[in-house]
Design brief:
alpha/beta; 291 residues; single chain; globular; binds uridine 5'-triphosphate; 5-stranded mixed beta barrel; 23% strand; two-stranded antiparallel sheet; Spore Coat Polysaccharide Biosynthesis Protein SpsA, Chain A
């Protein structure tokens, strides 16, 4: 079985839920205090042992490329003013992984974006991490848990969480092959954004992490546009279940929906409360506000 050594981060969406800021700033660059969201996504892949990362961008997302590149001018100015520690930090970002970029020509859906990774994947299974889903982990990076599940089963792996009934309508919801409370179980179908909880086949939602097999590209190439006229990854994964078993892996970290305004605010508060340089002030401020 081929090992998973590559990751794809699709980041070419329009980010309409975060307009107007996404008119000029990619959603992936929205900061969690002073670190752009996509930094944490790349870090999660790196902590799982992945070094080669392809970010799918669009023509308006050059700031993502700049962020992972070396900025000689900034570094030399920092060093000249004695800020070597800051200059080293900047260099570390550029060296954290082999980050490559490709442009999706038109935002024709997540499935279409993934198709741009075909030659990068080069016939191997690969990890997919969506920037909307920020996952805070203490020990095991979520994508690492999915890689373990892939190594155990050899199947397509969907990163999932159990979510409350009223939120199921926002997600793809899996149908277990057999009833199961386990963290890893086989899936036989998926329902995308069920309008009513009674239409959801379980309470297990797919949340932005996948291990996809190489044959997904053949399936995507023949997948017709679905909801919103876009090529949907969910449709291709469902079709690929006939070729290879698919599993739900419930990861352990805490997940934040950064594509949603309240989810974004929650992430900023929680990350601030974990930072030594901020937690006391932020906590005192929150206590004062909620008195
Ligand atoms: P979303 O469905 O969240 O779309 O995409 P979006 O454009 O980013 O955000 P909204 O809904 O308009 O606010 C899920 C993931 O797929 C990527 C996005 O960048 C995001 O990571 N994507 C989506 C692409 O790369 N290309 C596309 O054509 C569509």
């Amino acid at each position: 079985m081929n090992k998973v050594t590559k990751a794809v981060i699709p980041a070419a969406g329009l980010g309409t839920r975060f307009l107007p800021v996404t008119k000029a700033l990619p959603k992936e660059m929205l900061p969690i205090i002073d670190i752009p969201n996509i930094h944490f996504i790349v870090e999660e892949a790196v902590k799982a042992g992945i070094k080669d990362i392809l970010i799918i961008v669009s023509s308006t997302k050059e700031s993502i490329e700049d962020y992972f590149d070396v900025n000689y001018e900034l570094e030399s100015r920092l060093r000249k003013s004695g800020k070597d520690k800051e200059a080293d930090e900047m260099r570390k970002i550029a060296e954290m992984a082999n980050v490559m970029f490709i442009r999706q020509r038109e935002p024709k859906g997540l499935g279409d974006a993934i198709l741009y990774a075909k030659s990068f994947a080069n016939g191997e299974p690969f990890a997919v991490l969506l920037g909307d889903d920020l996952i805070d982990f203490d020990e095991a990076p979520a994508i690492g848990e999915l890689i373990d599940a892939y190594e155990k089963t050899g199947g397509t792996i969907l990163g999932c969480k159990r979510v409350p009934q009223h939120l199921l309508k926002k997600y793809g919801v899996v149908k277990p092959k057999d009833k199961s409370d386990a963290a890893l179980f086989e899936v036989c179908d998926m329902v995308e954004k069920p309008k009513d909880p009674s239409l959801a086949p379980s309470d297990v939602a797919v949340l932005g992490r996948y291990i996809l097999p190489p044959e997904i590209f053949d399936v995507l190439e023949t997948t017709a546009p679905g909801v919103g006229g876009e090529i949907q990854l969910t449709d291709a994964i469902k079709a690929s279940m006939e070729l290879r078993p698919c599993y739900s892996c419930i990861f352990t970290g805490t997940r934040y929906d950064i594509g949603d305004k309240f989810g974004y605010i929650k992430a900023i508060i929680d990350y601030a409360l974990k930072r030594e340089d901020l937690k006391d002030e932020v906590l005192a401020y929150l206590k004062e506000k909620t008195k």
